[in-house]
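Deliverable D4.2, example record:
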Amino acid sequence: MRAKNILTTMALIGGAAIAITQTSHAGHGAGMDHSAHGHDQIATGGVLSEPGQGAFAALSEVVRVLEADPDTDWATVNLSGLRAHLVDMDRMISDAVVSETDVLNGIIALATGDTETIATLQRMVPAHAAQLAKDDRWTVETLQIEDGIELRVTSDDPDVVDRIKGLGFFGLMASQDHHREHHLIMALGKDARGH
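Output generated by the structure prediction step:
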């Protein structure tokens, strides 16, 4: 009977220790105790710029801006639309299969993928090409093809040609820093196609 009582007591103590450990996140590495995060930020005055995975981070940043603006018209906010756009951005970067051909004055990039990726490319690339075309140092053309999109970027300036080739398809898609403004306009439920 005594052995049974000792085993029961040990089981209870062990269970309590596990519960305390789980509650306090003691098994987490440094900086992983969620209960201390608010205190750490207050103590250090630090402000993180990346609150998670890319799309989540972008949404989080937009929400923070909207909530800080007393003039936000919440009746027009469209975070679902912004999320769909962020999913497209991720799919284009992660899933597109791109072959680039250097031409004398630039590149021709053929981008394809699975059915969803092709649809994404056919939405995203022409829209971004319109932004690229605002830079008069190069000429930008897109052509929708059955299994994807063709992007042609050329210039008469040899230095710009080197830049085009250095950027390649993905660098060109990431250039022209308009994305944050574009995302905020989308989140506000406005037409972002002209931006």
